[in-house]
Automatic annotation (TrEMBL):
Source species, domain of life: Bacteria
GO cellular component: cytoplasm
Pathway(s) per entry: Carbohydrate degradation
Residues that bind a divalent metal cation: H35, D37, H68, D177
Gene transcribed to yield this protein: rpe
Lineage: Bacteria, Bacillati, Actinomycetota, Actinomycetes, Micrococcales
Family statement drawn from the similarity comment of this UniProt entry: Belongs to the ribulose-phosphate 3-epimerase family.
Designated name of the protein: Ribulose-phosphate 3-epimerase
GO biological process annotation, one example: pentose catabolic process
Organism: Serinicoccus hydrothermalis
């Protein structure tokens, strides 16, 4: 079984109450990150929020912001999200023109750089980008909406990314996003993921703090659930 160095929970505020985001961020103070889904109605058929909102959230969030950019032309916009206060900025490889330049610009702006892969995008062609990255996001649903079913077939890609990271050395996190919940998180951890995005499984729970603790437990010891 894969043994990632640390297991981190990044609740997605896509499933939070958008009318009370400051309060919703306080509710996840025991998490490691707050996952912020930025959608532009072009790269994905949904529209959420942009830099001004990220800047406002960064000022009140008790945990660092993990910005997942589902937008066209991340080359132009990604560094601005780091400057707005995001501690991690993820661009989609399907949308980026210059992944090396964009990853370097994110780092230069003070954030961790990450690359996301849609379910239909193979990892193989991008393995040489690893030295430019702090994290690889393997999408376990089609990006665009929360509340979708976990795509089991993406676990093979998680294993492939984890194996490549091991081979090359260096500390690069492997994130999964989409349908991650109590019944799926263990298999993600076993495959080698170490950062877990969960929207509905956290904000849909009656007790948000308990949901985060349960996810942490299930990720650390899949045999318990
Ligand atoms: O990037 C996303 C969708 O594109 C969201 O982060 C993701 O779907 C989280 O929601 P859930 O845990 O409810 O599936
Ligand atoms: Fe996301």
């Amino acid at each position: 079984m894969a043994e990632p160095a640390h297991l981190q929970i990044s609740p997605s505020i896509l499933a939070a109450d958008f009318a009370h985001l400051a309060r919703e961020l306080q509710a996840i103070e025991t998490a490691d990150w707050a996952h912020v889904d930025v959608m532009d109605a072009h790269f994905v058929p949904n529209l959420t929020l942009g830099q001004p909102v990220v800047e406002a959230l960064a000022k009140v969030s008790p945990v660092p912001l993990d910005c997942h950019l589902m937008i066209d032309d991340p080359d132009r916009w990604a560094p601005d999200y780091a400057e707005a206060g995001a501690s991690s900025v993820t661009f989609h490889v399907e949308a980026v023109a210059d992944p090396v330049g964009t990853a370097r610009a994110i780092r230069a702006a003070g954030a961790r750089s990450a690359m996301a892969l849609k379910p239909g995008t193979p990892f193989g062609p991008y393995v040489d980008l690893l030295p430019e990255l702090d994290m690889v996001l393997v999408m376990t649903v089609e990006p665009g909406f929360g509340g979708q079913s976990f795509m089991e077939d993406q676990l093979a890609k998680v294993r492939e990314v984890r194996a490549a990271v091991r081979r090359r050395g260096g500390e690069i996190w492997v994130q999964v996003d989409g349908g991650v919940a109590q019944d799926t998180i263990g298999r993600c951890a076993e495959a080698g993921a170490d950062v877990f995005v969960a929207g509905s499984a956290v904000y849909g729970a009656e007790n948000v703090a308990a949901a985060i603790a349960d996810l942490r437990r299930a990720a650390a010891d899949p045999s318990e659930v």
